[in-house]
Amino acid sequence: MLPKRYLSARYARSGAMIVQKYIRRQRYVRYLQRYRYERHRYRKIGRFGFGKRDGVAGFFEEIPALILATIGMSIFFITALMAYSNYMGQQEAIKFVDDGDAFSKAIRNYKGLVYDADGHPIEGRFDYFKVPNLNVTNVSKDLNVKIKNRHFIVEIKDVSDYDTHYDVRIESSSREGLRRTEVLSTVYIRVTDDESHLARLITEIWV
Amino acid sequence: MYDGMLFFVLMLLSSGIVMLTTLRASNQTNVNQNSYLAEYADSTLFALLKSTVNYTYYYDSSGPVLKQINRTNKMVSELLLEDIAVRYSDSTPDESLVNVFEKSIKDIADNATYPEYRYTLVAQYEDIRVEIRGKSVGALPMERHASFMELAGLEPINGKVVVYLYIWRR
């Protein structure tokens, strides 16, 4: 049923034009209704994050957060990797120093140096007769377990105020090493019951 | 966005915790160095006390006549005990006790100590104290390692004399 205004004199034109205009108007109204309905629908669905408009916009909004998360993860993994590498290096260094210490103790108790004529060898009490006879071959053979095929230096330096000094220095290799550890200690060299010379003992191992 | 920031902060905190843990593990190295220094102090004190001094002397001023006391091939421990005994019986000993007798001990101890270390050797009986300081050593530092031995005192001392060796890094 057409509204009365379309039948008034003011709009009195050909019937076809009136009908066309009416149809266009109706299409427009339906379009508006449809648009309002869709808008309402999209908003409702968009609350759950799956709507077309919200879904597309939300992805772009999350990109900075994704970058932050990636940077955070990267920092954490790099730090963990560095810490692990550092820790392993330290453990290796500590073990190497311990080996150097064990080698020094072995030298201090080495039967090729210690005075044992009285039947009571004492750590760090060397025999003046044995000191000059110290050599690489014997030390390598007798203390191979402690040396573990590493290169070594043993140096005994008599620092007493006597005229005769008992010094010795043996070196298994002249090759430079990447890692070296040096252990310093003090010993005494027994000459007679009344004469003992104070001496420095330097041991060094390297690979 | 806020979730991302929160996650980032958490990751930074975790990284900090990991770094702190690593630093604590590195203290293990210091512990090893300290135990090594303690062993060095022990070996040095033992060897020093057992070693002998070729020749030294001091003047005995306790009697009416100044008398030279010569000591040959005496162990450092014996010299220290004699030093304490002399100081015990004579409250104002001759200067030679410090300038010659103790200096001979100082010379041998100086030679024995490696350049990277400093030391002070102390022998003590009650309030009598003999202190021999190494080269360019002032007061004892806060961080030091001490090794000590108890020795039976010489007559007229009827007790133990304690000998300390303090060692520290330069």
Properties at a glance:
heterodimer; A: 207 residues; alpha+beta; Ribosomal protein S3 C-terminal domain; 2 domains; five-stranded mixed β-sheet; 5 helices; 5 strands; B: 170 residues; 3 helices; 6 strands; rod-shaped
Write the layout of secondary structure elements.
The complex is a heterodimer of chains A (207) and B (170).
Chain A: H1 15-46, H2 52-61, H3 63-108, E1 125-127, H4 136-142, H5 144-147, E2 151-158, E3 168-171, E4 180-192, E5 195-206
Parallel strand pairs in A: 1-4
Antiparallel strand pairs in A: 2-3, 2-5, 4-5
Chain B: H1 2-50, E1 52-60, E2 67-75, H2 76-89, H3 96-112, E3 117-125, E4 128-133, E5 145-152, E6 160-169
Antiparallel strand pairs in B: 1-2, 3-4, 3-6, 5-6
Strand order of the largest sheet of chain B: 4-3-6-5
CATH domain fold name of the largest domain in chain A: Ribosomal protein S3 C-terminal domain
How many β-strand runs of chain B?
A: 6
SSE succession of chain B? HEEHHEEEE
Oligomer: heterodimer
Please work out how many helical segments of chain A DSSP would assign.
5
Strand content of chain A: 15-25%
Low-confidence stretches of chain B: none
Radius of gyration of chain A, in angstroms, nearest whole number: 48 Å
Q: Distance between termini of chain A?
A: 107 Å
* Percent of residues in beta strands of chain B: 25-35%
Question: How are helices and strands ordered from N to C of chain A?
Answer: HHHEHHEEEE
Number of structural units classed as domains of chain B: 1
